Every structure is written in structure tokens, then in C-alpha cells.
Amino acid sequence: MTKVCVRVPATSANLGPGFDALGVALDLHNVVEIGLSEAPRVVVGSEGAHELPSDRTNLVYRAAFALAEVAGVHDVHFSLRCENRIPLARGLGSSAAAIVAGLVGANELLGRPVDLEGLVQLAAQLEGHPDNVVPALVGGFTVAVAEGKQVWWTQIPVPDPPLVVLGIPEFALPTEEARRRLPDRVAFEDAVANTGRAALLVAALVTRRLDLLGVATEDRLHQPYRDPLVPGFAAVCRAAREAGAAGVALSGAGPSVVAFAEAGRAGEVAQAMERAFDACGVRARAIVTHVDPAGAQIVERPNNGWR
Fold this sequence. Notes:
The protein contains 10 helices and 11 strands. By secondary structure, the chain is α+β, with helices and mostly antiparallel strands. The strands form 2 sheets. Strands 1, 2, 3, 4, 5, 6 and 11 form a 7-stranded mixed beta sheet that branches. A 4-stranded antiparallel beta sheet has the order 8-9-7-10. It is globular.
């Protein structure tokens, strides 16, 4: 095998109270064609075409090379063609998708020397935390926690999952900047509030009690500190709820906002989020997505849309 094509979903992490633990895969994808070559070659199209590196420092390439090193394959080079649909630095797991694409593609090319558990552990090491890479790899809703270098994870079985509406501002917000806003300590009552809401969120999804998501997506550990970085965040959340969203939260570190909604209300929620951002002077688009149940997949190369 000399070439494979990998499709990797966007992800939304935290989902309100599940800081650095909860995540979900969405049907917005990057597609990466990866092959063995005599010298490094990287082509990036669509999102990040003029921002991401087109050499071996590209994150997809670095992940592929790390997989080869773990597999004991040395002096190998890769050729990459990346068609990116996941916006960069918007809280939608673009870096996790890059890492997962490189790992899964290189693993397939080299005969699958690393099993799924090994891919999870390696992906989390490269990303620094597991909440985005796990759903990107396995799909659906997931919970993942790290203890030292070990990641413990599982999928959350969610029957008939709600639609996920994404309000995506045009401006970027690097995760590092959003992390700097977090305090070193939090009040005990805030920790208690988040513990209960994270548990309630998982239970509400599993039992499809969408009426509980309003309370279950509340957060006191990270959103209050990141709120100033996202102009209009409170107004967008309020507008989404008034339009029928069951629950609303910051997507990852932001600035995107994620809302859960029934099929009959998702379109109205998307329009309300766009209007609320616009009223606050922020250009944004809202899209309705489904939960991606499969995660990263080896697919056939698309016939068009490549540059």
C-alpha cells in the first residue's frame, strides 16, 4: 500500500461542565491523503491553506512521523494532501483532527502496527490532553481522563443524539490564550457545581432527557473566565435557548458556541445565534451538524474539491 485517504471529524470538547474530559465528534471533516514518498511533501487546501506549514513541521506530518517512530520504522518520508473543512483555532478540534489524521493514515500505510488503544495514548501525548482526540478517533460522545501518561476513556452510548448547532465566529482564539485566562484555584462550591452538572449531562444524554441539558451544560470552571474573549457569548447563549436549544456551551476553548437542539428547532437556533453575534458586532456563521458515530475512517479519495 502506497497511499491512503483518511477522513477525520471536527470535535467539540468540554460541552459545558466536562472540562478536559467530555467531547463529541461532528460530521464536519478534514480529509487527508497520505502516502510514502522519497522526500517530505505537504499540500494544504481550504481552511489553513495560507497559514499552515507545507513542510515536515506540519502537524499532520509530525503525527505520521511519530507513528512511524513508535512502530520502529525509520528513514521514512510522507506525502500529504490535506483538504481542511474544520476552521482553525475556533474550538472545533482542528489540531486534534490533524494529529489523528497523521496517526491513522501512517498506521494504515505501515500495516496497522499500533492498535486503537495505542493510537489513543499516542494522540493524547501529542495533543497534551485527550478530550478532542478521543472522539476524533472513535466517534460519538466520549469521556476521557488522563492520569500521568495514561488515558482512560470510553464512548457514551447516546440513543438518537440531538443535532449540534455550531455558532462559528470569524475571529480565531488560540487555545493557549484561552488557557491563560483560567485561574490556578477555584472555589469549592464551583467544583461541586461542575461535578454534579457533568454527571447530569452524561445521564441526560444516555437517557435522552434533553429537558435536563439546560442545567447540565452550565459551567463555573472555565466559561466565566473565557467569556470576555468571546464578544456576545452570553447573548448568543440566551438567543439559542430562546429559539429552542436544549443546552448551550462554549465549544472547547472557544470562540465557537455549541448548542444541542431537536431537528425541528435546529434551523431556528442557528439563525438566532447568527443574529445574536451580529448584534454584538461579531461576524459569524452557524451550521447544523450531526454527531459523527464513527470517528476517523479510511475512505476513498474524493474526485473533486482538491487543489
